[in-house]
């Protein structure tokens, strides 16, 4: 099966791996934000994790230890954020930005001398024979363990937040820190632990970039992935499975970008698919905006969904198979799409309706 | 045990002492870092903070100081207006790039016409480019309630792509033997931004930065809009009752900071940088965030902070050529400065008390 030079099986298998760094970082940030803390330093923690993981793996020769090193590096950096915001009550937005600037600086300082080295290979988890099965093999069985780990973590974060006592405490702290404090919970301590978890997850995500995706060390290796992870948390409405969907959507764009650079243009079928996903998100956004008083949004939603297949059919009829796009514009696509999706998901609804934790970004001090 | 206690009113003393303490702490910890890297910490600190102003090559480096401080101050003042109102424009780097690209495009479009109006028009175009780029997050924020932090930041990456396209495509020097980069403005006097006094480092960007600082100070302390900005930042609910329109405020703050960043970009590209190249932007838009905080979000404080940060740039370059200090070490140093500033800042609103302090908990 072939879509104008791009094999969908390879694309899907590729997107699952491409999505891992932003998925892990966004899951960590989901927990952090659910506890009421806005840590904008994800990019910094990822890049430190990428360096920590790379250095550990190169010196020990073990990729598994490398990911552990990435987690430790990310958590250590997030400890600075935790100390500043939870002990010194510093502004979270400013501290998060400082964390990113600092992390980028430290990583490029510490990474000197590691350029051009190949890290140890992270092998596939399951036997080769399983991965050889047509279609299902590469998609379901062909990955390294981090890909399965990221999916397992999605389920774990979802379950913990939804069904456990720990999750309830985290959410209570994030929704109303005063009430949680009155109930006897140590608000700042709980938030500190959540921040460390977020740092470790971002660190593993970063380590996956330098150990498996690229795999080598270059300055600023994460290239904005941390910011996309932050955006995904917002438009996933702070829900883990939606984070997974968002990460796979952007992973898909990233994987496609690589494919297109090889084949020279976007196949019409894939373009239709992207348009369909965007249309679906837009339709959901429109449906949510419509109220009993304004039901006219329903036809609009249907119209939006109908456009991509229409374009596709017209394109096919005219004999267009792929659309040429300059590489430069393709590299900005993830960022433009992030903005578009953010706009759709946040439009027309109040803070309460989007599911944002009520205490998000506010510091807590018991003396108030 | 040490514990924090909220002050009834913010401390005036610590408001002004915080940056000084932060700088001293950064020097100490930075010195330890440099020592760990095998450099003599005293020599490095002296090279960064003393030599550019009083050292052997100070006659040249003092000018460089103004060259670096100009754009930092210009951008930071715009950002500070927004930060004061709780509007977080993080994408100044993108607005800086777009100001440079739009302004340079206007100038290069009429090459090689000679008219004294060309440069002023380019300045306006640069401000417009930055303003328009900042209007994207502003409109999305006011119209669709979209997070301005994320949108303005995403637009930095988009702007960088456009810059790359400009340098290798639509603004590429037709006589440049195929190398990326636009025509050099130093060979096009009508559109250039030269040094105004030889050796001083002062160009129109520096002049604009200093004038803007004074205007912004007047705006914040004397004008109704400045009052509204401060009110919206400190008490958003009170501001709404007072009749301050959040939409207008977002448009004003984002627009102003975008236009100022765009101006900074245009002055940089026509002056010190000389041409549009893939990497003419050197992260001023991000460093300006540190400058804004270091200057206590106060225009006059920002001028001082801008010079201090320029010192770390100029001195850092010296340290890197003379002592072999990696350039990234300066970036770490700047990040540390912001950390210490944010940490020490707790003393403005809180005081440390010894003991269990049950009395204060009972009082309030």
Automatic annotation (TrEMBL), chain A:
<feature type="transmembrane region" description="Helical">
    <location>
        <begin position="6"/>
        <end position="25"/>
    </location>
</feature>
<feature type="transmembrane region" description="Helical">
    <location>
        <begin position="217"/>
        <end position="236"/>
    </location>
</feature>
<feature type="transmembrane region" description="Helical">
    <location>
        <begin position="299"/>
        <end position="323"/>
    </location>
</feature>
<feature type="transmembrane region" description="Helical">
    <location>
        <begin position="243"/>
        <end position="260"/>
    </location>
</feature>
<feature type="transmembrane region" description="Helical">
    <location>
        <begin position="64"/>
        <end position="84"/>
    </location>
</feature>
<feature type="transmembrane region" description="Helical">
    <location>
        <begin position="96"/>
        <end position="117"/>
    </location>
</feature>
<protein>
    <submittedName>
        <fullName>ABC transporter permease</fullName>
    </submittedName>
</protein>
<keyword id="KW-1003">Cell membrane</keyword>
<feature type="transmembrane region" description="Helical">
    <location>
        <begin position="145"/>
        <end position="161"/>
    </location>
</feature>
<keyword id="KW-0812">Transmembrane</keyword>
<dbReference type="Pfam" id="PF02653">
    <property type="entry name" value="BPD_transp_2"/>
</dbReference>
<feature type="transmembrane region" description="Helical">
    <location>
        <begin position="266"/>
        <end position="287"/>
    </location>
</feature>
<feature type="transmembrane region" description="Helical">
    <location>
        <begin position="37"/>
        <end position="58"/>
    </location>
</feature>
<keyword id="KW-1133">Transmembrane helix</keyword>
<dbReference type="GO" id="GO:0005886">
    <property type="term" value="C:plasma membrane"/>
</dbReference>
<feature type="transmembrane region" description="Helical">
    <location>
        <begin position="329"/>
        <end position="345"/>
    </location>
</feature>
<dbReference type="GO" id="GO:0022857">
    <property type="term" value="F:transmembrane transporter activity"/>
</dbReference>
<dbReference type="InterPro" id="IPR001851">
    <property type="entry name" value="ABC_transp_permease"/>
</dbReference>
<feature type="transmembrane region" description="Helical">
    <location>
        <begin position="192"/>
        <end position="211"/>
    </location>
</feature>
<keyword id="KW-0472">Membrane</keyword>
TrEMBL record, chain B:
<feature type="transmembrane region" description="Helical">
    <location>
        <begin position="323"/>
        <end position="344"/>
    </location>
</feature>
<feature type="transmembrane region" description="Helical">
    <location>
        <begin position="57"/>
        <end position="83"/>
    </location>
</feature>
<dbReference type="Pfam" id="PF02653">
    <property type="entry name" value="BPD_transp_2"/>
</dbReference>
<feature type="transmembrane region" description="Helical">
    <location>
        <begin position="12"/>
        <end position="37"/>
    </location>
</feature>
<keyword id="KW-0812">Transmembrane</keyword>
<keyword id="KW-0472">Membrane</keyword>
<dbReference type="InterPro" id="IPR001851">
    <property type="entry name" value="ABC_transp_permease"/>
</dbReference>
<keyword id="KW-1133">Transmembrane helix</keyword>
<dbReference type="GO" id="GO:0005886">
    <property type="term" value="C:plasma membrane"/>
</dbReference>
<protein>
    <submittedName>
        <fullName>Sugar ABC transporter permease</fullName>
    </submittedName>
</protein>
<feature type="transmembrane region" description="Helical">
    <location>
        <begin position="287"/>
        <end position="311"/>
    </location>
</feature>
<feature type="transmembrane region" description="Helical">
    <location>
        <begin position="202"/>
        <end position="220"/>
    </location>
</feature>
<feature type="transmembrane region" description="Helical">
    <location>
        <begin position="149"/>
        <end position="171"/>
    </location>
</feature>
<feature type="transmembrane region" description="Helical">
    <location>
        <begin position="117"/>
        <end position="140"/>
    </location>
</feature>
<feature type="transmembrane region" description="Helical">
    <location>
        <begin position="249"/>
        <end position="267"/>
    </location>
</feature>
<keyword id="KW-1003">Cell membrane</keyword>
<dbReference type="GO" id="GO:0022857">
    <property type="term" value="F:transmembrane transporter activity"/>
</dbReference>
<feature type="transmembrane region" description="Helical">
    <location>
        <begin position="95"/>
        <end position="111"/>
    </location>
</feature>
């Amino acid at each position: 099966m072939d879509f104008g030079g791009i094999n969908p099986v390879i694309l899907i298998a590729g997107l699952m791996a491409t999505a891992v760094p932003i998925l892990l970082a966004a899951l960590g940030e989901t927990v952090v934000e659910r506890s009421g803390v806005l840590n904008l330093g994800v990019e910094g923690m990822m890049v430190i994790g990428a360096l920590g993981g790379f250095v550990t793996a190169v010196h020990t020769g073990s990729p598994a230890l490398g990911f552990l090193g990435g987690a430790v590096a990310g958590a250590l950096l997030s400890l600075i954020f935790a100390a500043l915001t939870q002990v010194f009550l510093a502004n979270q937005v400013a501290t998060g930005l400082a964390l990113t600037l600092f992390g980028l600086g430290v990583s490029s300082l510490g990474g000197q001398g590691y350029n051009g080295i190949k890290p140890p290979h992270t092998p596939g988890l399951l036997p080769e024979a399983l991965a050889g099965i047509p279609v299902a093999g590469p998609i379901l069985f062909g990955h390294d363990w981090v890909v399965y780990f990221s999916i397992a973590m999605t389920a774990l974060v979802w379950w913990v937040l939804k069904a456990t006592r720990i999750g309830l405490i985290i959410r209570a702290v994030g929704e109303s820190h005063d009430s949680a404090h009155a109930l006897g919970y140590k608000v700042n301590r709980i938030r500190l632990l959540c921040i460390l978890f977020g740092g470790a997850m971002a660190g593993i995500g970063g380590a996956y970039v330098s150990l498996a995706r690229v795999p080598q060390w270059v300055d600023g290796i994460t290239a904005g992935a941390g910011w996309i992870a932050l955006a995904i948390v917002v438009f996933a409405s702070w829900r883990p499975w939606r984070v997974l969907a968002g990460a796979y959507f952007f992973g898909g764009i990233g994987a496609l970008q690589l494919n297109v650079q090889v084949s020279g243009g976007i196949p019409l079928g894939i373009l239709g698919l992207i348009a369909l996903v965007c249309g679906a998100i837009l339709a959901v956004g429109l449906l949510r905006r419509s109220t009993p008083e304004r039901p006219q949004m329903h036809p609009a939603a249907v119209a939006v969904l109908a456009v991509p297949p229409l374009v596709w059919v017209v394109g096919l009829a005219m004999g267009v198979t792929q659309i040429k796009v300059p590489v430069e514009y393709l590299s900005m696509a993830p960022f433009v799409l992030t903005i578009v999706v953010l706009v759709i998901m946040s439009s027309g609804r109040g803070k309460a309706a989007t599911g944002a934790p009520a205490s998000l970004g506010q510091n807590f001090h018991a003396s108030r | 045990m040490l514990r924090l206690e909220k002050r009834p009113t913010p401390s005036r003393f610590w408001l002004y002492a915080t940056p000084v303490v932060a700088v001293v702490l950064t020097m100490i910890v930075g010195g330890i870092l440099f020592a760990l890297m095998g450099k003599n910490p005293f020599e490095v600190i002296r090279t960064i903070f003393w030599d550019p102003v009083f050292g052997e090559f100070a006659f040249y480096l003092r000018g460089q100081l103004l060259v670096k401080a100009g754009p930092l101050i210009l951008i930071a003042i715009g950002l500070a207006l927004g930060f004061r109102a709780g509007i977080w424009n993080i994408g100044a780097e993108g607005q800086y790039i777009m100001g440079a690209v739009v302004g340079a495009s206007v100038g290069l479009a009429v090459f090689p016409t000679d008219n004294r109006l060309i440069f002023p028009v380019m300045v306006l175009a640069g401000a417009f480019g930055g303003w328009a780029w900042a209007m994207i997050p502003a409109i999305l924020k006011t119209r669709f309630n979209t997070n301005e932090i994320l949108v303005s930041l995403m637009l930095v990456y988009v702007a960088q792509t456009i810059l790359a396209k400009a340098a290798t495509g639509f603004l590429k020097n037709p006589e440049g033997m195929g190398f990326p980069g636009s025509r050099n403005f130093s060979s096009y006097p009508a559109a250039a931004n030269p040094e105004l006094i030889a050796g001083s480092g002062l160009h129109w960007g520096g002049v604009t930065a200093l004038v803007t600082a004074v205007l912004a100070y007047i705006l914040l302390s004397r004008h109704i809009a400045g009052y509204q900005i401060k009110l919206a930042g400190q008490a958003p609910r009170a501001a709404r009752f007072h009749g301050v329109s959040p939409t207008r405020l977002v448009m004003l703050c984002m627009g102003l900071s975008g236009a100022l960043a765009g101006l900074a970009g245009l002055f940089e590209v026509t002056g010190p940088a000389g041409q549009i190249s893939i990497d003419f932007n050197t992260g001023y838009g991000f460093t300006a965030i540190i400058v804004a905080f270091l200057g206590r979000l106060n225009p006059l404080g920002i001028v001082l902070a801008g010079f201090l940060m320029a010192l770390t740039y100029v001195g850092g370059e010296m340290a890197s050529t003379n002592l072999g200090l990696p350039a990234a070490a300066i970036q770490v140093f700047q990040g540390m400065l912001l950390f210490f500033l944010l940490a020490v800042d707790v003393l403005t609103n809180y005081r440390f008390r010894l003991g269990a302090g049950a009395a204060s908990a009972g009082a309030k």
